[in-house]
Write the C-alpha cells for this entry.
Amino acid sequence: MKLPNSSKSLWIATEKSRAFPALKSDISVDVAIVGGGITGLTAATLLKRAGLSVAVLEAGRVAAGVSGYTTAHLTEATDRSYLDLIKDFGEDGARLAAGSCRAALLRIAGFVRDEGIDCDFMKVPAFQYTEDPEMIPMFEAERTAAASIGVKVTLTHNVPLPFATAGALRFDNQAQFHPRRYLVPLALAIPGEGSYVFEQTRVVDIEDGEPCRLVTETGIVTARDVIVATHAPFNNVVLQTKIASYRSYVLALHLNENQTPPAGLFWDTETPYHYIRSQVTDDGPLLVLGGCDHKTGQEKDTLGRFQALLDFASSRFSVKSVAYRWSAQVIEPVDGLPFIGLDTPSRHVYVSSGYSGTGMTFGTLAAMINSDLILGRKNPYDNIYDPGRFKPKASIVDFVKENVDFPLHLVTDRMKGAEATSLSDLAKGEGKIVEIAGEKTAVFRDERGLLHAVSPVCTHLGCLVGFNNAEKTWDCPCHGSRFDKDGKVLNGPALAPLESRRDEAVIRDQPPRIARQVVAKG
Ligand code: FES
C-alpha cells in the first residue's frame, strides 16, 4: 500500500490558514507570548479576557507548528501511570495532577461552548487497552491507584476495537477535537484593543528586566511579562536537561466499507505505544493511528517507521488506503510531569515544556497556570509543575539516560567519517553528510536535482545533525532541534539557522572541468 509522498497532517490539510501580519515596528504590551500554538494562543485569550494587552509572536504560522501535527487526544490520563505518580509525587501530588488535567479539559470545553467554536469537539470514552493477558493485574493495580486519588476508571473487557484485546482501563468523559478548527478561531479573536498576533516573527533574544525586551529580526517588543510557549524552551539550559525530544509517527487511514473507525481514544501498553482515534472528514471517516516513537535525530530510516505503523494497522484493521502521513515532536519530562511556571531567577519570564503525548491538555493547563501567575491569582496546581523542581527518585534514571546523548554525540559523531565523498553519490530525494573541500557538509538533492547544502553543526550546542528521510529535514540527536533543507529552524531549542554552504556544493556539483575552473578562479 502506498504512503503519501509528502508529510502533511490531516489538520493542516483540512483547515486553511488565516494570515496574520509580521511585526514591522517596535511595540509595547502588557504580556509578550513567544509561540502561536495551543499554549500561546490559550494564554493570550485568557490574559486578554482579563483586560491585559498581549502580543503573540510566532516564528512561522499560527497553529501550524507542533499544534498542527498532534492527534489531539484530550484526556486526563497522564502518560505516566497513576501508580508511578503516587510513588513519585505522593497521593496529594498525583491527585492534583489528575485534577489539573480535568480542569484543562473543562477549560477547552468552556471555550468551545462560550465562543461557539465549530471544531468537531466531542466527548468520547478513552481506553488504555492491552493485547497481553499478563498486563491485567497491572491494570487492576492502576484502577485501585486511580480510585485512591479520586479518578474514576473502570476495568473492562468490552473494548470497542475490531481485534482481540485482553481488556482495558476505561476513562469516561474524555474528548477529541480538530485542533486547527479550535485554535484558528482563538487566534482570530486576539487582535484589537492593543493586542496583536504576528506571524513570521522570530524572537531571537529575550532580555529579562523591567520591562522585558524581546528582540526580533524586525522590531523590539517591550512587555512587563513574557511567556515562552515554544514547546522546547530556548531560553533555559537547565530546563533543557530535564526534557528529551522524540518523534512520533501518524497515519490517517481510509478503512474498507465493511469497517467504521472506532469511536473513542485508545492507546496500548507497548513500548513505544500506539494510539488511535477517528475523525470525520468530507472524504469520509478516517482512522488516525500514531506511534513508533524514537528519540529525535537517532533513527536512520524514519520512513521505515511509517511502514511499521502501516503494518500494525493492516494486521488489526481493514485498511483501504493511506490519506495522510505526518510525524510530530513530543517532549518527554524526566519525572513524568511537565515543567510550568516562573523561570526563576527571572521575575517576569514564564516557561512550560515536557507535555509528553498529551500536548493539547497540558498546553491548555500551562496557559491557565502561567496566566494566573501573571495576573496574581492563586492557581491550585502551580506547585507540582514548578519548573525548578528536581525529584531525584523520580527522575534520576531518565535524567542520566537522556543527558548522555549530548556529550556522546558531540564527540563520537565528529569522529565519524562523512557518509559520502562525492556529490554524485547523492540521488534525488536523498540527504547525506558529504565531505566537500575537506569539510563535512549536510547536502540534500531535491526531486528536481537541485542541491541544498548547509553546515551539519547544530547551532544550539554543536552536535552534528542527521538526515530525516521521511520529512527531508536535518535533525539533531542531542536535544532534538530540527532544520529544513535550507537550514531554517523547525523545532528548537536552536534559534539560529544552519549556516548555508550551498554555493560551495553547487560549484562542486558541476562537471569536473567547470568545477576546477570555478574553484581556480576563487
Ligand atoms: Fe542541542 Fe543540537 S539541539 S546541540
Summary: The longest strand covers residues 319-333. The pocket of FE2/S2 (inorganic) cluster is lined by residues 458, 460-463, 476, 478-481, 493-494 (CB under 6 Å). The chain has a mean pLDDT of 91. The first helix runs from residue 10 to 14.
